[in-house]
């Protein structure tokens, strides 16, 4: 894995119109954004400043596969697959360290977000990021005596929800087939549970109805609170 800079195959970038060196955004599997610098050297194109953080935050290893899609407006969507070509579901909950640990940014240094040009599109993007950050921080400050986990909604979670493996493996019964989800002051839903390998649980049948009934949107932060082995309370923090 190229940690310092990532070369972009010429066959890929030569088919992209209007893309030039400068600041671009990488939209990771979690829906979070990593600002990086796109450089052109001797006819080759590279991701540089900011790429190291993307590699570190996703714990990328040699042999893993990255799928890039150019969305326009200087933004790429990135999916991460392991060496066996299976998508790494753990990347769905990854967030940029600089967004989570804000106190780490020194007073004299500009954050990566501040380097993005102040165009109307980027201002809207900043506003969306700030709303998502605020929702995530509120979710992380939720206190409970029960096991909890925070998940950020992304497009692929509207029809089914992958629960983080570490949480599922530690707290959910291996024979789970159904879970009752309770949203305080809103109602309760019976959701089917699928197990896809050791510690991998998916909220499947009934989840779409749950998502639509509660108006879940990409960027919302959800706190899953396990109050019983077959019941979770879901606390929704809107982005």
From TrEMBL:
<keyword id="KW-0804">Transcription</keyword>
<feature type="domain" description="TF-B3">
    <location>
        <begin position="1"/>
        <end position="84"/>
    </location>
</feature>
<protein>
    <recommendedName>
        <fullName>TF-B3 domain-containing protein</fullName>
    </recommendedName>
</protein>
<dbReference type="InterPro" id="IPR003340">
    <property type="entry name" value="B3_DNA-bd"/>
</dbReference>
<dbReference type="Pfam" id="PF02362">
    <property type="entry name" value="B3"/>
</dbReference>
<keyword id="KW-0805">Transcription regulation</keyword>
<feature type="domain" description="TF-B3">
    <location>
        <begin position="146"/>
        <end position="239"/>
    </location>
</feature>
<dbReference type="InterPro" id="IPR015300">
    <property type="entry name" value="DNA-bd_pseudobarrel_sf"/>
</dbReference>
<feature type="compositionally biased region" description="Polar residues">
    <location>
        <begin position="106"/>
        <end position="118"/>
    </location>
</feature>
<dbReference type="GO" id="GO:0003677">
    <property type="term" value="F:DNA binding"/>
</dbReference>
<dbReference type="InterPro" id="IPR044837">
    <property type="entry name" value="REM16-like"/>
</dbReference>
<dbReference type="GO" id="GO:0005634">
    <property type="term" value="C:nucleus"/>
</dbReference>
<keyword id="KW-0539">Nucleus</keyword>
<feature type="region of interest" description="Disordered">
    <location>
        <begin position="102"/>
        <end position="125"/>
    </location>
</feature>
<keyword id="KW-0238">DNA-binding</keyword>
């Amino acid at each position: 894995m190229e940690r310092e800079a990532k070369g972009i195959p010429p066959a890929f970038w030569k088919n992209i119109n209007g893309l030039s060196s400068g600041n671009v955004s990488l939209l990771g599997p979690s829906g979070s954004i990593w600002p990086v610098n796109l450089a052109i050297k001797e006819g080759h194109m590279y991701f540089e400043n900011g790429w190291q953080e993307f590699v570190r935050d996703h714990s990328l290893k040699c042999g893993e596969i990255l799928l890039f899609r150019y969305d326009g407006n200087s933004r790429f969507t990135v999916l991460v697959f392991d060496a066996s070509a299976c998508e790494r579901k753990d990347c769905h909950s990854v967030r940029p360290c600089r967004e989570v640990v804000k106190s780490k940014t020194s007073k004299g240094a500009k954050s990566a977000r501040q380097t993005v040009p102040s165009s109307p599109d980027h201002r809207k993007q900043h506003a969306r990021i700030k709303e998502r950050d605020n929702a995530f921080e509120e979710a992380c400050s939720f206190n409970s005596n029960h096991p909890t986990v925070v998940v950020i909604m992304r497009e692929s979670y509207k029809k089914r929800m992958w629960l983080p493996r570490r949480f599922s493996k530690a707290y959910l019964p291996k024979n789970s087939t159904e879970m009752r989800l309770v949203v305080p002051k809103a109602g309760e839903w019976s959701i089917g549970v699928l197990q896809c390998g050791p510690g991998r649980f998916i909220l499947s049948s009934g989840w779409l109805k749950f998502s639509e009934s509660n108006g879940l949107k990409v960027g919302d932060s959800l706190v899953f609170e396990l109050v019983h082995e077959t019941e979770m309370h879901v606390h929704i923090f809107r982005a």
